[in-house]
Amino acid sequence: MSASADAGPALVAGTVAEAVRAEFPELALLSVTVPARTGRSTRDVRRQLRLLSDRFRGAQAITMRQDPVPWAYRVFFRHLGLDPDVQRTPIEALALERLVHGGLRSRGLLDDALAIALFETGVPLWALDAATVDGGLGIRPAVAGERLGRAPGAPPLAPGCLVVADGRSPLAVLCGALAPGHGVTPASREMALFTVRVAGVTAIHVEEAFWRCLEVLGTR
Amino acid sequence: MTPVLEEQRALTVPTAPHTGVAVDERAARRTLRAQVAHLERELAEGFVAAFPRVGLDWSVPAPGGPRLLELGELERLRDDLAQQVARARRALAARAAEEAQRRVLLERMLLEPRRHKWVRVTRAELGEPGCGAWHVRPRLGLIGMLMGWWQVKLSSGCPLARGSRPSATPPRAR
Question: What residue spans define the domains of chain B?
Answer without folding.
Answer: 27-59+70-154
